[in-house]
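Handoff note, outgoing to incoming analyst
You'll be picking up this chain. Sequence as last confirmed:
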Amino acid sequence: MLRFLVRRTLGAAVILLIISAFTFVLFYVAPRDPARVACGKVCTPETLALVRRNLGIADPLPVQYWHWLQGVFAGRDYASFGHCPAPCLGYSFHNREPVLGTILDRFPTTLSLALGSAVVFVVLGVGAGMLAAVRQGRALDKVASSASLVGSSLQIYIVGVVAMYYLTDQWHLLGRPQDVPITQDPAGWFRGLLLPWFVLALIFTANYTRMARSQLVETLGEEYVRTARAKGLSRRTVFFRFAWRGAMGPIVTIFGLDIGALLGGAIITEQTFGLHGIGALSVKAVQDNDLPLLLGVVLVAAGAIVVFNIVVDAVYAVIDPRVRLT
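Most recent structure output, in case you need it:
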């Protein structure tokens, strides 16, 4: 198991290195000159050269990337900002603050949104899929399948606006969405994220319902499940000990990908509800042409997906020991 995780971790490190190099080159050869954008309207050649040196973009592109990697692992000195301790992702062109600090300041909101909605859509989606599989062909199965089809067709930017209008403004059933720190006001944090949790979970629940139902229906028809029934085991034992474990693989896979993507920034959800998370930060970075900040957000999103892929691999190894041999 340890060797399995070490191999996956080393592979993830190589993937992140490749992503960082590709993203760095893609952003820093953009048509717009970041130094000229930061220089302002009245910008002389001397001032432009000074801005390039202060921002650390006066060197050739390969040298810039090497300095950026050094900053990530060993820290970096900037002419304008001083020393940036490791891990240093650079300084924002727009607000002149460390990129990592800015991302960490926004990350709790994205983390709260992702984990809270994940609890809702996993419980509701998998639970509905289990009931539909057990009641295959009956009214409950048809209702769950139809509801999941409708739910997967909805869009957050429509459902979110309608939900806020009725549930918050008209009926006053839920509080207005806001990102209150949980350490300051746990009750306010819960009220402020309750509506985004359920709206975001509504979209994901449909996918998990369909996935759980299809996998369980397929697994319930397997030979080893029918053998367990023939041996006289109870329906509950057969379902949870054999069928459920066999159907968990694909569900774990999509859950790892979904939670990784949400931690990288739920852009549409955060914009719809006015939450100041990583998704909203990425939109602001694009609008400001803030390349260091945008690069940092992309790497955080990629890192979240890669990390949760490793977690999925580890869970797979626990569910199915044959995976450890690959």
